[in-house]
Amino acid sequence: MQEPKITGEYLEGIQRAMQKYDAELREINQFIWTNPELSYEEYKSHNRICAMSKSREAEGYKVRRSAYRLKTSFLIGYTDSSGGRVAAFKAEYDALL
Q: What is the pTM of this model?
């Protein structure tokens, strides 16, 4: 099965979004790196990521803390009123054991 190619406006939209959030994503990455936490005790990381996303609610993001009955889990949803395509990213990070 051949993977679909991402081209044109769709790819450009992804690139614009990545550029728009680049500084924030890098800051979160650095924060997680410099604040290691134990598995299922990633409260600092959880709170930092949720706070960043909550600050973007006016843009269509919605944060659900402690998703899936895990205190350090979260779900960030996005609603786009244009009806166009939405790209989704799943992210996981390793904790100390």
A: 0.76
